[in-house]
Amino acid sequence: MKKILYVLFSLLIIVAGFYLSTAVETKGQQLYKDKSSISETKAAGVQIKDTKFKVTMLDVDQGLCVLIEADGHTMVYDGGNRENSSRVVAYLRKNNIKEIDYLVASHYDEDHIAGLIGVLRTTSVGNAIIPSYQSNTKIYSSFMKAVESAKSVKYANAGDSFKLGNATVDILYGCKGDEETNNNKSTVVKVSYGDVSCVLTGDAEFQTEDYLVRNGAKLGCTLYVVGHHGSSWSSSDEFVKAMRPKIGFISVGVANQHGHPTKRTLDTLNNNGVEVYRTDTQGTVVFGSDGQAYAVLTEGKKFNNDVSVLPPAGTKYVINMASKRFHMPDCKAVANIYGYNIGYTTKDRIEMVNEGYIPCGYCNP
Ligand SMILES: [Zn+2]
Ligand SMILES: [Zn+2]
Hints:
There is one protein chain. Helices cover about 30% and strands about 25% of the residues. The chain is globular, with a radius of gyration of 21 Å. It starts with a helix and ends in a 6-residue tail after the last strand. The chain has two domains: about 30-300, Ribonuclease Z/Hydroxyacylglutathione hydrolase-like (Metallo-beta-lactamase, Chain A, 4-Layer Sandwich); about 305-360, no CATH class. The strands form three sheets. A nine-stranded mixed β-sheet has the order 1-16-15-2-3-4-5-6-7. A seven-stranded mixed β-sheet has the order 8-9-10-11-12-13-14. The protein contains eleven helices and 20 strands. The protein has helices at about 1-20, 40-50, 85-95, 110-120, 140-145, 205-215, 235-245, 265-270, 280, 305-310, 350-355; strands spanning about 30-35, 55, 65-70, 75, 100-105, 125-130, 150-155, 160-165, 165-175, 190-195, 195-200, 225, 245-250, 275-280, 285-290, 295-300, 315-320, 325, 340-345, 360. With about 375 residues, the protein is an alpha/beta fold. Bound molecules: zinc ion (ZN) (2 copies). One zinc ion binds near residues 107, 109 and 203.
């Protein structure tokens, strides 16, 4: 099987080579990409499945969680929000990942660290890298407790680097203490594998981006995990020009209340020739590479995600109109309700029961 795939892969390289022979490509050669159909995506998945280097941006709605795999070693950069924590753990299980070599928390906002708590509680973590500031939130305290289970915990320090299989991870920015916002304290890393590389900036905004550009950080990369969910205060034109990425991944919730990603940022990426993939419309997205060629695979949205991701403001319970059961909005069972059966309510428990609805036995609403 491996041999056949290798032959197929080589053929594809040759074919792609003809098509791309006139293009000026200094880093990586794009073989295949998919933006639309699920069946095509599966075909591409065969290739990506066998690549030794993978960057997976999980669909965690409004939040960020990136899994990096290199030669069997793994790193998790952020873990998404509380509501989607179970998705992250489930994804690790499904992919048979029992150990995390490195866990990086970019900064202490809930949509980045809440999901890491679940990872720390269920998976063995080697090294944790955290930003050197404190927060007075509950989620921060829970995270700091959970992170004690890692074998080592270190502060992110610009200039440090470590190996992840044959990949090199360079910390380009670590919190210095003079940042105007917590987002700007985000740990910025660059992961390089052969000719391809990926820059992750968490929620860093212009201040940190400018600092990196001014200090001549080696920002050139193939993949840019777009800062702060594509907000208007990140991804300055100068910063994007310094990175020259081919691909941009944006993690955002469907119809999120922040308006992410914004037109300003999408225009900047577009004007710089960056090909954008996003979780709100394409679900989990995967960048796979052998160190030279690369491909992007999109998992596609689950059938009901378009309606179930962000319940309307004031929603108390999510209803399965078919079974007449009602759930807490973060109940696992909600993900299994067909989109057209989903209902939302602001009524309280007693009213619901009086109207003949049944509380879910799992989440006990
Ligand atoms: Zn965020
Ligand atoms: Zn943030």
